[in-house]
Each structure stands twice: as structure tokens, then as C-alpha cells.
Amino acid sequence: MTRTIYVLNGPNLNLLGKRQPEIYGHDTLEDVAAACAKVAAEFGLTSQLHQSNHEGQIVDLIHEAREKAVGIIINPAAFTHTSVAILDALHTFEGPVLEVHISNVHKRESFRHHSYVSLRAEGVIAGFGVEGYALAMRRMGTLLAVKPT
Question: 3-class SS at 109?
Fold first, then answer.
């Protein structure tokens, strides 16, 4: 198996950099992919970023990760608060899972305070903007006991 980390992103994150920049900033998903690839390379890992607005496609990507990835970093976006299907899929994945949120969900509406994904995640990073993805990738390297080069 390759040393690949899947970076999964939920609904509306394809609009990152354009949608509500006062909350999510000006960086794009392409910027996130580049930052993840850079940190992954420091640990001898690779990253594959995926985004979908469809819950079932995210479930399919988690199933795919069972065969192709050693870890998952996931920002499920709105599915964080609603998707038992994504939680169940994550329970089928044997490697580490880290949850990322660009905004501090605990300073936002109360419905955003609950996460189904957190029930499976080894850790949660929230409120660090898109830098949270790079932090998660660094943590993933540590969880996989890979020393940075």
C-alpha cells in the first residue's frame, strides 16, 4: 500500500476562497492541496485531495481509502453535524482519522457544536483557517510514526 493520506472535503468547500471569505478566508482548495502535499512530502507521504457536495460520494471515497490510503484527514463541512453514514464509513477504515474545520465551529451556531465524525477521529483541529489542514498533515505524520526529513 502506498503511504497516501486522503484529504476529504464536504459540501461547498469547492467554493473556498470565494464563499464567505470573512469566515473561511481567501485561500482556495487548490492552495489547501498544495500545502498538504508539501507537508506530506516532509514525512515521505503523499496526499490526495478530494471534494464532493454529495454524501454518498464521500462514503465511496472513504471505502476507496480502505485500499489506497494509510490515513484520512476530513473536513466534512455541513455533513459533520448530520451524517451517520459518513461516521459508519469511517468506522470501516483502519488507519488514523483527523477532523478539520476551517472556522471555530464552537463560536458559531449551536447546531455546529455537535460532530458525528468526532466519534471516530483521533483528533479535531478547528479555527486555524486553512492552516489547519497542514497541522493535521503534520499530526498524521506523527501518528504514523514517520520522522520528517
Answer: coil
Residue 110: phi and psi, rounded to 5, are: -60, -30
pLDDT by 10-residue block (mean), the chain, 149 residues: 90 89 81 97 97 98 98 96 96 98 75 81 96 97 83
Percentage of residues in the chain having pLDDT higher than 70: 92
Look at the block and give the residue holding cell 501518528.
143
Q: Where are the domains of the chain?
A: 4-143
Q: Which of 6, 101, 116, 133 is catalytic?
A: 101
CB 10 within 8 A of CB 76: yes
Sole residue written with cell 514517520: 146
Question: Does the annotation mark 101 as catalytic?
Answer: yes
The domain made up of 4-143 has a fold known as Rossmann fold (3.40.50)
| Interatomic CA distance for residues 119 and 81, integer angstroms | 11
Catalytic position from the list 6, 24, 116, 133: 24
What secondary structure letter does DSSP report for 118?
G
Instruction: Please indicate whether residue 24 is annotated as part of the active site.
Output: yes
Whether the model clears a pTM of 0.90, i.e. scores above it, the answer is: yes
Terminal-to-terminal C-alpha distance of the chain: 21
- Tens digit of pLDDT for each residue in 98-123? 999 998 777 666 656 578 999 999 99
